[in-house]
Amino acid sequence: MSESQNPHSDPNFNADPAMDSGDNVESFDTATDEAFLDESVVDVPETRDEEMERLRHSAAEADKRVLQAQAEAENFRKRMRRDFEDQVRFASTDLVVDLLQVRDNLKRAIEVASSSQDAVGLSEGVAMVVKQMDDVFGKHGVQEIPAEGEEFDPNFHEAISQMPSEVASGMVAHVAVSGFRLHDRVIRPSQVVVSTGPGA
Questions:
Q1: In a designed cystine with 179, which of 13, 56, 101, 145 is the match (CB 3.0 to 4.6 A)?
Q2: Exposure class string for 111-120: b at 16+ Cβ within 10 A, else e
Q3: H-helix or E-strand containing 101?
């Protein structure tokens, strides 16, 4: 090739700087770096420390859920145990209520028998039955509620009427029907007459 045909031998030749091979390499590298920095182009993998932190967080959350489940299960067991104990403890309530009616009749028989001198033996016999029944009740946690001469308490007493008496106003003047409780639960309140005070 002759010098006239070689453009680099021409003193008037002005090469385009943008066509310089060094500039082309630098422009390519810059575009490549920007592409790698763009998260939409490539996902940056998490570091080992980030992975360990993520795993520790997941383990802590799992432990928390396990502890919550254990606490809920324990509370459920306690509630079920309390309910079962209450059911066992008060299972005889209906039986006790029925037996109390028998006791009431025995008490009435004593009152009738004591009014006749000929019925002293009967009175003593019925009294022994009542005493025996009271002992059985006591064995099973049934206790008579104190009423006569006590201050009226709606938690334990049921007022059926009021009347003047020698005791102070608001006190129980007479017990019509004795009340009872099974352990710490009132199963039948005392039916009482409440005093309105002397001469009221």
A1: 145
A2: eebeeeeebe
A3: helix 93-114
Q: How many residues does the chain have?
A: 200
Per-residue pLDDT tens for 10-56? 555 454 544 444 455 455 455 555 555 555 445 668 788 888 888 88
Find all residues with CB under 8 Å of 41, minimum gap 6, and list them: 35
CA nearest 156: which of 126, 129, 131, 180? 180
Query: How far is it, in rounded angstroms, from Cα 179 to Cα 181?
Result: 7
With contact defined as beta carbons under 8 Å apart, do 143 and 115 qualify? no
Domain parsing of the chain, residue ranges: 75-140, 142-200
Q: Which structure tokens are listed for 165? A: 């008496």
Q: Which candidate, 173, 170, 165, places its Cα nearest to that of 199? A: 165
The pLDDT tens digits of the residues spanning 113-171 come to 777 666 677 778 788 888 888 888 888 889 999 999 999 999 999 999 999 999 999 99
How is domain 142-200 classified at the architecture level of CATH? Roll (2.30)
